[in-house]
Amino acid sequence: MKFKFKLGNFFLTLATAAAIVLSIVLWIFIMTNDQRFSHLSNQTQSSPVSRQQNRTRNKSLYDLYIPTNSYGFKDGKLYRLYDSKNNLPFEFSKNFQKMKVTKIKALSQKQANYELMLNNPNFIQLTYPDEVTFKLFANFNEKNDHREFNRIFVPDSNHWLYLGNDSNNQLYRVSIKNANFDRLRKYAKTAHFKVPMTFVRLKSGYSAFYNHSTNWQVYSYLTSHQSDSYFVARLLGTSGVSSRTNKQGRTTYSLNYYTRLTVPQSGPNNEHDYLYTHYEKNKVPAATNRLLDSVYYVHRIGLTEQDLRFFDADNNAVSYTNYIEGIPVFLNDHDVQVATNFTSDSVTVNFNSINFQIPVPFDGETKSLEATTQMVESLNRHGLSNENIERIIVGFHVQKDHSHDSLVNLVPTYYVKAYGVWQTANEWQKQDMSVYQHELESEGQ
Amino acid sequence: MDHKRIEWLFLVVFLLIDIYLGIEILRSPVSLSNGNNNETDTTNIRTEMRADGIELPKNLSDTQASGYYLAAKNRDYLSDKISNLSNMNASYSKSINTLNATPKSLVEVKGNQKQVLQQVIEFKNNPDNVPYGKHFKYEANMSGDNNYTFVQTSEYGNIYDNSAQLTINVKDHAIANYTMTYMGPVNPVRELQSTISPFHAVRVMYTDRELANNSRVLKVKLGYSELTEVRGSTILLPSWLVWIENKTSKNITMKRVNAYTGQILQTNSSYNVTK
């Protein structure tokens, strides 16, 4: 009896101790699980597994990463291809999602060979505005590498493609299965809006230079904006949020110490620009993960993503903007729709709430843009040399139409990226270039 | 004994705490709604719907489709066609852009349902009976025993709107009359773009509580719906049309989901924009 009594006591003590330890462990688990407090999902935790799930569960990745432009040859001349009825990059993307990559072989890295490919009339070319990684597309390559490309060369065969990286002239030959680009080739032959052009090597890659002055269509949209409370609810939640207004009239909403949203000032100066910041000690994700994580934030903001496309990736920043008929839209003169930036301390997301809600039928208005070479020559004369120009594109500048509050016109304009900054050609013309020259000199020292 | 009692008390209290904490951990945290998080596993959603008594069509696809923004010029297309309708007594109401017509002589439609439908289609395709008749396609989901509804077609898809519809009424085995609206030719306003999948549309309706418990989704179709009017044109956008039957009352309703954004289309708003 005595023995039983002692054993009973022993188990009682053991069970009590175990219950206490278990409750401590569970409590620590809950307290250290950031998700429960900041409402951040696993996908921000940079876990490759969650990224993979994200990739398979969310098809919008392919919608955000559709190539933005297509090029082809006719009578030996290179043209930007455009067909109002058939969206060529979208047609390519439909096949791209289905195809299986069986082999990737690295080829030449010589500029001469790369330029031979650019000028080879046997290929239809599709381009991303900046480099993306092979690994971004699950079927492409499961190996842990950081190879990038921004140009796809579609041959007559459905069994292989060439991919190219403008920044280092690297070419890849990719063997594929389950792809059929016959319809793409047919559309490319019948594309009716064709602007003759050449690819010119600039600091970051090849930009399309239009050989002579061209009339570009001006599009109009009725726009709308979501309210501040919509974004606060999506990004910070509906409870535990405090607010503080600063001297410039911008209000910052905070959830705990780590997550903030600064909303634009209200009234006539409202530029609809928001800044979301989440402080978190973390490694800056590698290229593919930066792209995937930025997609997560894009979805999280809750903007209409119909026209949103990957636009630019620099160092730790990835940006997205709306593409209308293959042309990127710049907001507030030279901002993009969403710009994510990853550092070891925080993630920041600058975004604009504009929604190009209703397209207005084209009314025949066009804008003439001078030949690209002519525009570059005038920039050269102003002090912006070719070596410092990273990229040149035709982009849409958003102008308010005074006939209706929410009506905007998208006016084609040359945009030039230099010293890491996008500005219109006109803005560069007015820019005091000595600021950047001093910067370069101090960097050199 | 006191010591033992205290130990029992501790054990019970901490076990309760453990159970509470365990439940807290098992309960999924409240996430913010966003496109990504809303991508709840398809199977789970299907199971949830089944538990709520919602039946889905067997072949409801999870594959994206594509569509255009379309525009139709707002014009009166029907009034000057009345004189061509030699077989009909027709009248046109300009205020609602609607043509009403009654056959001058008896037009019999006999046989089984299929044969009657075939004869109604033949009647519709005759330009002496119906203007632009060949631009309309039979829509079974919108038709009844004695009325045959046709929707306006285009090379980009069918238009499901009161301004693009033909309804032929049959009475006593003969065509009684018809009512018609016509939107005119449509053209793309912007290039082709991807849409959400039909399953995604149904899921949006379910999460937005637009799909009641104990209902049956009969059909999901991609068609064009009116978005608004701008600069004298009607803007149409691709929409998923979802026919839902209430299992108890057997009532059938049709709801629309914006196929680009996944938003439920409620009413058409109108803007007057001039330039």
UniProtKB/TrEMBL annotation, chain A:
It comes from the Bacteria. The chain crosses the membrane at residues 7-30. Keywords: Membrane, Transmembrane, Transmembrane helix. This is Regulatory protein YycH domain-containing protein. It comes from Lactobacillus xujianguonis. Gene3D superfamilies: 3.10.450.310.
Automatic annotation (TrEMBL), chain B:
Pfam families: YycI. Keywords: Membrane, Transmembrane, Transmembrane helix. The keyword Transmembrane applies. Signal peptide: none annotated. The keyword Transmembrane applies. Residues 35-260 form the Regulatory protein YycH-like domain. GO terms for cellular component: membrane. InterPro entries: YycI-like. The chain crosses the membrane at residues 6-23. This is Regulatory protein YycH-like domain-containing protein.
